[in-house]
Amino acid sequence: MVALDERLAANRGGTDFAYFFASAVTPRDLGDALATVAGRSEDVPLKTGIDPHAYELTLTDLAGTLALATHGARDRTLPETWTSDFVLATTTPTELYGAHDGFFDRDGKKRERQDRANRANLLLLLSRGYWSPKFLQVVTKEYFDFDRKEGDDAWPVADPDDDVGYAPAPNGAYLTDGVLALTAALTANSVASKWAFTEFQPGRVEIDGSDYEIGRFTHFLLFEHRFPEGSGDESIGMTAALTALSSAIDSTISSEAATQPLPYDAASKDFGPTHDSLILLALARDMAQDSGCSLNPLHYGHCVIAAAKAVWGWVRHWGHLVLNILTLATFAPPPFSAIGVTAAASNATWYAIEGDYGMAGLSLAAALPGLAFSKIAKGSATAKGAATAAKAGRAAAKTDEVAKAARWWRPMKPWKDCDLVPQGGLRLKYHSGWTPAQRQAADEKVKAIYEAAQRGELRKTLPQRSGTATSTYVKATGRSVPAGQDVDHTIDLQLGGQDDISNMKPLDLAVNRSLGIQIAAQLSSLEYGEPILGVAIC
């Protein structure tokens, strides 16, 4: 794995390398390679001498390489069998490799056991990559059907020994739930997440024992699939379902909707992930308020159960962390990327989610590499109460390094990848009616704003004008403004741009107005002087 890590790190972001590497390896190769880091028992999950941080970087680079290859086009397109083999290797490997007779073929039976262990090993990669929408659509369909068909027997149970290697996450946790790994992968790709929560299973289904209806895929995640359990029968990793839902919300917001605040305080009648998130908020609040329950699991037995037992059992299983995120004022409700959420609420939410991801064997840094983990740890009261500031800072710095590695494997330019926008950044949208020329003009403006953000120059600012931009431009250049265009401040005055000819150029009128309105709407809840950490358009 050391030699592999060096090779992957040296080729970060290389599309040709990713294609040829992925083409040359099989799921069995990948699973066996990861098995080499496995310890001999659950008590010793990692082999002696393995550096957890170096291992995390290797996982991130390996997942990033394979995932980047799935975005290939033309002569760099992986065959469809690559995806189908990956699915079979993580669900029913005997269909891919065949079964062995244990009495006459002990070596073959040992091979079969390792292939079963590799199901879990490969899920570590699935959960850490930015996979293409096409790849994730296939995996989502197959895992959905497989999970519903097999029920509690769908996914493996880690059982390491001297002969079979179950690769743990770097912190020692085992990731054996395919649906859990899938939700982390959907979190990373908002386009795929939007498809999963809207087009994959269209329509709504009533929550048994309630008056609420939610989307079919949301219902599957929250009320059908059983996520792994920790102490007190509470779920582990269920925050990944919330982050996937949040990712879908971000992707469904249109350019017009981006100019208005989301209706957190009222149920939406429209089908979609925003509607579903509001229903989950309502259910959590019903449990905490109408049922007379605190969110402490120790108090569940003393609650006045107002909801039907079917609903109650599921909501209780979500666990106090999920309920905190959905109900308490100290946490931010989805979508978690909302720029108007206070820093304290955002930090507390993301710090808690990162902990839950870790317990489940996931990596929040790989799923959402746009987050500034050092700032989250520094600004979170939770972090300060859990460990010393210095210890939390060191851990967050390592997490930032993982996020940086994950960003290298993204196929798009950073100003066109809304999934990379950090908390406190702007997610702008193309108008559905724009021409290619208008989209290109928007790209150029957003790229300039992105570069200013990277230099730390963007802050919410009260615009100060010395006159109209058009008159200043015409007077300074002696040129007229082309028809259908307006003189634009490339870095908007509301973002701290200068009211100077060096910051002015003609821009398509519709593009100028749309982006200006979107930016103003997303800045509306911020205090003047607050920094804007990034921007992208999608």
Number of domains: 3
From the N-terminal CA to the C-terminal CA, the straight-line distance is 37 Å
Uncertain residue segments: 261-268, 297-302
Overall average pLDDT: 88
Name a few traits of the molecule.
538 residues; two-stranded antiparallel ribbon; two-stranded parallel ribbon; 23 helices; 6 strands
Structure overview:
The model is unreliable at 261-268 and 297-302 (pLDDT under 50). The strands form 3 sheets. The chain has a two-stranded antiparallel sheet. It has 538 residues and is mainly alpha-helical. The longest helix has 21 residues, at 106-126. Helices cover 52% and strands 4% of the residues. A hairpin with a 6-residue loop joins strand 1 and strand 2 (213-215). It folds into 3 domains: 1-175, no CATH class; 177-393 and 406-411, no CATH class; 426-537, no CATH class.
Short description:
This protein has 23 helices and 6 strands.
Question: How are the SSEs ordered, and which strands pair?
Answer:
Blueprint: H1 2-10, H2 15-24, H3 27-35, H4 52-69, H5 80-91, H6 93-97, H7 106-126, H8 133-150, H9 178-188, H10 190-200, E1 204-206, E2 213-215, H11 216-223, H12 239-252, H13 273-290, H14 309-318, H15 320-327, H16 343-359, H17 364-367, H18 373-379, H19 381-386, H20 389-408, E3 426-428, H21 436-454, H22 469-477, E4 485-489, E5 504-508, H23 509-523, E6 535-537
Parallel strand pairs: 3-6
Antiparallel strand pairs: 1-2, 4-5
